Predict the structure.
Amino acid sequence: MEWLTLTIDGKEVSVPKGITVLEACRQHNIRIPTLCHDPSLTNTAACRLCVVEIEGIRNLPASCVTIATQGMVIRTGSDRVKEARKTILELLVANHPLDCMTCQKMGNCSLAQYAYEYGVSGDVFQGDKRELPLDDSNPFIIRDSSKCILCGKCVRACQEEQVNGVLDFFARGFQTQVGPAFNSKLAESECVFCGSCVAVCPVGALTERQMAGKGRPWEITKVQTTCPYCGTGCNFDLNVREGKVIGVTSNSDAPVNGRMLCVKGRFGFDLIHNPERLTTPLIKKKGKFVEASWDEALDLVADKFTEIVQVHGPDTLAALSSAHCTNEENYLMQKFMRAVIGTNNVDHCART
Amino acid sequence: MKQEKGKEKRKILVCAGTGCLSTGALSLIQELNQEIEAQGLTEQVTVVPTGCHGFCEQGPTLIFEPEQTLYVQVKKQDISEIIDKEFKQDLRIERLLYQDPLTGKKTETFANTNFFVKQERIVLQNCGFIDPENIEDYLARDGYKGLMTALKQKSPDEVIEEVKKSGLRGRGGAGFPTGLKWSFCRQTHADKKYVICNADEGDPGAFMDRGVLEGDPHSVIEGMLIGAYGIGSDEGYIYCRAEYPLAIKHLKKAIKDAEEAGFLGENILGSGFNFKLYIRAGAGAFVCGEETALMASIEGKRGMPRARPPFPAQKGLWDKPTNINNVETWSSVPHILRRGAQWYTQYGTEKSKGTKIFALTGKVNNTGLVEVPMGITLREIIFDIGGGIQDNKKYKAVQIGGPSGGCLPESLLDLAVDYESLTSVGAMVGSGGLVVMDETTCMVDIARFFVNFSQKESCGKCTPCREGNKRMFEILDRITQGKGQLEDLEKLEKLARVIKDSSLCGLGQNAPNPVLASLKYFRDEFLSHILDNQCPAGVCTAFLSYHIDNELCKKCGLCVKNCPVNAISGDKHTPYSIDLETCIKCGICVEKCKFAAVVRSGKE
């Protein structure tokens, strides 16, 4: 690999040829704020927060799209750069509802984080604010366009990762918005509710509806698990607060699926704490299910299984288990069938 | 003389550009044809609808060939007299001749008008003199000879070398050397390359490209053919705004005729060079004049600029190497090939060669299209060609370069118009809009107007342009409403700095220029608005107030009758007065009063 020597903030550093100035800076632990950049999406250089000063370039180029070249002299913290970044943040904050206290994204909002770092308040530029209706037309995603900073990550995630192209920009200038065709509600659009857009939104414009009001990031424990719904083997994080699963968030480090999930994996966790779930065994007596104790139920099943195996052989039994159980329960089920009953007749609702 | 005229068929060139069409050129053409037939002159006279004569202020205009007599502001009812006097009696109609607004003298021929004398028409040489829908007319004026020179006498590299030597620079605004641009695209290896003509002219008050496309479409096609041959491209697009239906119509006809004549298509003029040309109509987004947004739009995507590099010469339309030039640049190329780079370099300055077309508009006597050698002074354009300021008012500023340019004051009138000098004073050649303003123009209001245009036309992609220009507009708007504060000027300057520094494309990077230039040259006007509660030009209504001077008032009651909001009261016995609470400051009372008794003052 060919290496280049750059000077970043007065220090000489070596970076591999072909990477961007942003990547070069991050490789050397130099903090560059970004809102529209995402390593797995194309770079559009839209937010302009990652601007740096590069000798020989008249303007302040966006580091996310500027390829590092041999001998480049980069300044990431000059007054000019700081003024530009701070002003850009002031402009974004001036057009943002400052209802952070009740915003689901609080504690995990990139805009708030950078505003804090750069000492930005909301009163520098007074004027119009984008006030758009909330789209809560569906059970999964709350789309609050008033909070949108138009970074376009959702547009790219929808187009480049899910390849659905439901979201795009429309209108011009200050009126620019992101939304489905004809500005319809998500429920009326071609959206498949994979939630890839929610996963990349840096602010509170796209949030998981089921998690609204259920927990703050610092109250949540993330438990990585494998999705039980099908055989793909997607990984994600269960968001657990006080022993309860309040939601699912994708995890870029997931080996099979990265950040991508389907509607079931991302939003189909509500069965876990569903009040309609069975909590006691039921035994059918005289054509009706009647509540029974665990001992009674297990004894009954054990007797019947033993009898069937003895009379008809183990292969006359088969077990079908469900994605609504935990992976561990499903594992135990097949182990039980194979080792205890003695048959390979096992299946699962998500086999295909 | 009279006998000679009888021998050849004379022509009446009727300007049928969009401007003159709107003032009735079409009915003039019909009337002329009818009258010629009625008077039995069909053998002697032909009516030729041409592209723009450039003299829009005086439209509709007629030019008689071969004498080049110019008639201006012709009306339908003048036609029978014109045919009778001009062709039967060989007499001029005095009242239809152009009158110089400065000297009051009448001028007989087009070439002798002050509007024309200082012009150097290269790109516009055919505009107004040929029927743009007739390829024969173009061929008769050496059309496609530049292409023949290129294909028959030069290698592609030699073509590029010739354009480089001519010093031609991009006429779309940025002024990048055209030959160099072509060579970048030529050097990129690819199985397919495109050439594009940027005809998405969108600056307020600019219509140079429209004039060329409507009046001489073949020159653009020929230029593109030469460029494509040099670069090694076999496919081109003309991206023309849909608001130019006549230009598109003429282009379509020209492409069809050029295909039939063998100038477009396979094995052009037996050279083995192939080229196909298509038109794409833009849907009216200003930002699509930016080359990367334009290409996105051709690809069927939302017209949003993307970061460069990669430049179009490496990765352009459908990711293939692409060369984009604007209408005027392409249209200059055939002349350079036909007459040589050496010939072209005689016009212009050391670094800015050739000529530039400007759309001269605003408070100037002769508005219209003018083509001048680079290096001419603003004063020459505005006062010699433009005939000075309307109604003998005082010159205040000229906005040059459209919404990306700046307003230049009287002290800079002797500045040479070229790429470098204009940039050095905070303006730019831009695409060539020249809006002249007089003392009745408020510079804060003008800065507000241009920023409003840019902020509305921002594609919305990058933060500084989308949000910053909006805030600049709001601050300027507050100043014009008397709600400005001194620190607003600092805010404006900071915003301008950041927007220029960090915006993604040229639209954003240049949008603050009108504000910066106005703050530089007309700061006192901003201060008057903020500190003295006054609009010195008397434009910003927030500062205006009206009252009636009872010594001059004759109590005629005309003001009362005309006031749309009944803010004026008074009768024969009671003095007239204006209720300032009700008054909406429309100024109708001032206009209506015959005794100048209604006084408008700029101070609150």
Notes: The mean pLDDT of chain B is 93. The first strand of chain B starts at residue 10 and ends at 15. Chain B touches chain A at residues 285, 287, 302, 304, 306-307, 309, 455-464, 466-471, 474, 491, 494-495, 497-498, 500-504, 509 (CB under 8 Å). Residues 112 and 510 of chain B are 39 Å apart (CA to CA).
